[in-house]
Design brief:
Keywords: Membrane, Transmembrane, Transmembrane helix. InterPro entries: DUF805. By secondary structure, this protein is mostly helical. The protein has one domain. 66% of the residues lie in helices and 0% in strands. It has 4 helices and no strands. The longest helix has 26 residues. The protein is elongated and about 45 Å long. The N and C termini lie far apart (43 Å).
């Protein structure tokens, strides 16, 4: 399977290795970009991370959907993944509200 098929197609299957490698890459990229932007451009950090998340939402859903398919589930099971995706979008918005503490410190 080619990289564009892997990242942008909802057809096919994804092995456990592919799924976990993608998730490791996904979260390392988000953490790295967020750290770099926060250190280099502190005034625009609340705008850059949501853009990165929007760019990565289709590949994330495609690989997750392929993994669900590999487990014998239909793409309808992606509905279970939507709260995670929405939470990722809400974290930069919550931190942009002027709160200097991480979101999990306010629970």
């Amino acid at each position: 399977m080619s990289i564009p098929e892997l990242l942008f197609s909802f057809r096919g299957r994804a092995s456990r290795r592919t799924f976990w490698l993608w998730n490791a890459f996904y979260f390392l990229m988000i953490i790295t970009v967020a750290t770099l932007v926060k250190n280099l451009f502190p005034e625009s950090d609340s705008m850059v991370l949501p853009v990165i998340l929007v760019l990565l939402v289709i590949p994330d859903l495609a690989i997750t959907g392929k993994r669900w398919h590999d487990r014998g589930k239909s793409l309808r099971w992606l509905v279970l993944h939507l709260p995670l995706v929405l939470t990722r979008f809400m974290i930069p918005v919550a931190e942009a509200g002027g709160n200097s503490n991480p979101l999990w410190c306010n629970l």
